[in-house]
Amino acid sequence: MLSCQKSLFSLPEDSHYFNCAYMSPLLREVEEAGIVGMRQKRAPYHIAPADFFEPARAVRERFAGLIGASDPHRIAIVGSASYGIATAARNLPVSAGERIVVLEEQFPSNIYSWRRLANERRAVIHTVEAPPVAPGRGRRWNERVLEAIVPGTAIVAMPHVHWADGTLFDLDAIGRRCRDIGAALVIDGTQSIGALPIDVARIQPDAVICAGYKWLMGPYSTGLAYFGPRFDDGVPLEENWIGRAGSEQFGGLVRYSDTYQPGALRFDVGERSNFILLPMLLAALDRVLDWGPPAIQLYTADLMAPFIERARELGGFVDDADCRAHHLFGLRIPSDRPINGLATLLREHAISVSERGTAIRISPHVYNDERDVAAFTDALEAFFAGQP
Fold first, then answer.
1. Please, which residues have CB within 8 angstroms of residue 383's CB and are 6 or more apart in sequence?
2. CA–CA distance from 216 to each of 66, 208, 222 (Å)?
């Protein structure tokens, strides 16, 4: 079991941050890596050709290990989840009348590229609606997803957990269904990878895309993506010099090559070798791997169990433990009580969460401790008691 890791961060004691799904705080060591990178850029004559390649190689290796991918060359460095999703959409075939399956209230970055693709190819966006709020809601939503993956489905684009309330989707079963009918599976791992175990060797998705500034604990404007064999002959969004064979030899760059670097490196975002952000992301990945997603799940489950029990006693709804993640879950309150009133009260008590749809989204991490939970519980009790 992990112990509380708050000492690795610079969070103030009087602030209770349950909002990693919004943006992770920077680890001290990640912040220091960025400072070192700025100092390096201050004196660019210290930046060698290897600095364009070695940090990127290390980041690919770390992310491949985190998601269970055997080949780091299948990892692309992207600037955002939307960049990775757009890359997938550019390269996946879909014909008129075929189905692209998404979820109700899915995050927009994993919607707009599919809408464009559907419009261009005259395909159909099929949205799997969420069941009514009741115990076991997550199980019923998974059933609906599997029922939606029918012959004529070309692409299933969905998250591992829903960004608004942490509903957990059975990617093993969904992956099998996709393979049975030949559909491509594109996973948005932004709200799960780094805190929730995932194994691409077992699930066999075609693409997994992840922003870096949430559960990977990295800086903003970073992201990583796994691209499987369907993309081996794909066309990137950009034609970068560094994505071509022989780009390590700076003196020969004008000997233009029509051959890409191996695997998914062709899909890297331009200027991927950011000398500030990439070392920060590498330091963050090292720490996440040191903790391990299974340990993060255990820590957050144990930490939040008393709070969830008390929230239910007061009349709130949190779905069953097997239907949601532990690092991210939604609290819903009775309809006669305004959700924005609870959000306002929590801000007044220096408790940071997010209001997402009909849920208060709560996303703890290993920097939270029992004092944070006690403060949250006190504020929730005051809300239900009608006290300011």
1. 337, 341, 342, 345
2. 10, 14, 10
181 within 8 A of 170, measured Cβ to Cβ:
no
Write out pLDDT tens, residues 205-214.
999 999 999 9
Torsion on CA atoms 54, 58, 61, 67, rounded to nearest 10: -140
CA 145 to chain centre: 20
Q: Sort 188 into a burial class: Cβ within 10 Å, 0-12 / 13-18 / 19+.
A: buried
CA distances from 387 to 44, 338, 341, 347, 382 (A): 58, 14, 11, 15, 5
Strands (E), the chain: 16-17, 75-78, 99-103, 124-128, 153-159, 184-188, 207-211, 223-227, 329-331, 351-352, 354-356, 359-362
Residues 14-71: pLDDT tens digits?
999 999 999 999 999 999 999 999 999 999 999 999 999 999 999 999 999 999 999 9
- The DSSP secondary structure of 250-266, one letter per residue, reads GGGTTS--SPBPSGGGG
The third-level CATH classification (topology) of the domain covering 30-287 is Aspartate Aminotransferase; domain 2 (3.40.640)
Torsion region of 204: left, alpha or beta (phi above 0 gives left; psi -120 to 50 gives alpha): left
CATH architecture of the region 6-18+292-384: Alpha-Beta Complex (3.90)
Separation of alpha carbons 362 and 355, rounded Å: 9
3-state secondary structure of 184: strand
Structural domain spans, the chain? 6-18+292-384, 30-287
